[in-house]
Amino acid sequence: MLPGLRYPSAVGNIAIKIHPMKKHYLFVVLFSFLFAPAHACTIAIISGNHTPDGRPIIWKHRDTGTLDNKVVIYDEGRYRAAGLINSNDDGPERVWIGHNEAGFAIMNSASYNLWEEWEEDSIDIPHQTGYIMRDALTECATVDDFEQFLLNRPQPWGVETNFAVMDALGNAAYFETDNYEYTRIDVDDKRVAPHGYIVRSNFSFTGTPHEGSGYIRFETAEQLFYRASGTNNLSIPYLVENMALSVHNSYSGQDARNAINLRDSESKFMYFQDCINRYSSSSSVFIQGVRPDEAPELTTMWAMVGFPLASVAVPVWITPEESLPSIITAPGTEHAPICDWALELKYSRMVPSTRGSTQFYIDAVQVFNADNTGITQQLMSVNREVYEATRRLMEQWYPNEPDQQQVNDHYQWLDETISRAYEEKFGISTTID
């Protein structure tokens, strides 16, 4: 337990300060906070000085009211970029985590303790977070570029968020940002990141103490990262299995993996709304950077699109042909196939009831069980196969950029291997056009 921190509910314990002349803004402020639980991301940045291979990593476990996500590549500015977007965003207008061909990457978690009060000229501005991240990916190559990009952007910025950014030079930092100010926190600053990583959920350390949300998820992630750093395991395969697939509540001690002692014919429902994986989890994405002597194009997005407990981490690179694995993308406003498969498993087996608050209870036996038929349990072997095949391929490329034909061949192998796994393990029809 983190000393001195209280654990507020989503709305009830948030103190809202209203300026005497701005009481008519109360509804807008309340609206923002009432919908905070739907934007309850857990994120982390990891210094390359503390990973086994020397490459930095950023991670975003996304929670949102829009559960259909996909990955696209777009070319609208100085740099081509790959980004996770809402499937209904035909543009894209907004990006929620991504990287570009220069090796710059960005993500965010909403913060709910930075705004003291809303200014007259900012109240009517829609939230700009996704727009800012889309624009930054087309314009920025380094962390310093992003800082200047933010300074040059007209104020108020229309954000209350923790931006996390990384570049191909090995730099990585948070920008805890509100409408007019930000605080930059570098991951290589040993005063704030002695173990080489920084975790955030839905509050900022430079904001109002004890307000915001996500304190239990923050503590869970802190425990997991501390354990990983102590065993030199701040690596993609370890982080996927232990962070992206976590259903542990550090406050209550409950963990879906404890169902490993139960048979698959049983059920054991667990309240999981305060876990890293929760009802609104829509994706979990790791972006692995490069060492300074390596081509920026080797920056790799590992995208678990759809409900992460029923999805697979799929690697993505930005290449001249702008190709992608078919299972994680789709044209226009269509859905990514793997997102649909993951959601089918979520609703048919893992969270079979969405009536009222029953949606906040997961059947832990469908995650892990003694018969080795848990959905997450079975997909772990697929994740390992995908990672190992990708690792062997990338070892052929370092330190140069990816080979286009090999990328295309690997994407085809990923599409075939992963879709076959969903068919054979779960009986899902996985025809891909």
What does this structure look like?
With 433 residues, this protein is α+β, with helices and mostly antiparallel strands. It has helices spanning 26-34, 129-139, 143-152, 215-230, 236-244, 337-350, 375-397, 404-426, and strands at residues 42-46, 57-63, 69-74, 81-86, 97-100, 105-110, 161-166, 172-177, 182-186, 197-200, 269-271, 281-288, 300-305, 313-316, 361-363. The protein has one domain: Penicillin V Acylase, Chain A. Helices cover 27% and strands 18% of the residues. A 7-stranded antiparallel sheet has the order 3-4-5-6-7-8-9, covered by helices on one side. The chain has a 6-stranded antiparallel sheet with strand order 10-1-2-12-13-14. A hairpin with a 4-residue loop joins strand 8 (172-177) and strand 9 (182-186). The chain is globular.
Describe what is shown at a glance.
With about 425 residues, this protein is an alpha+beta fold. It contains eight helices and 15 strands.
Strand order of the largest sheet: 3-4-5-6-7-8-9
Q: Compute the number of strand runs.
A: 15
Largest sheet: 7 strands, antiparallel
Distance between the termini: 49 Å
Please, how many domains? 1
Report the principal-axis shape: globular
By CATH's scheme, which homologous superfamily applies?
Penicillin V Acylase, Chain A
Task: Enter the CATH topology name.
Answer: Penicillin V Acylase, Chain A
Just name the CATH architecture. 4-Layer Sandwich
One letter per element, helices H and strands E, the order comes to HEEEEEEHHEEEEHHEEEEHEHH
What's the gyration radius in Å?
21 Å
Helix content: 25-40%
Output the number of helix runs: 8
Low-confidence stretches: 1-37
Summed over residues and divided by their number, the pLDDT gives a mean of 90
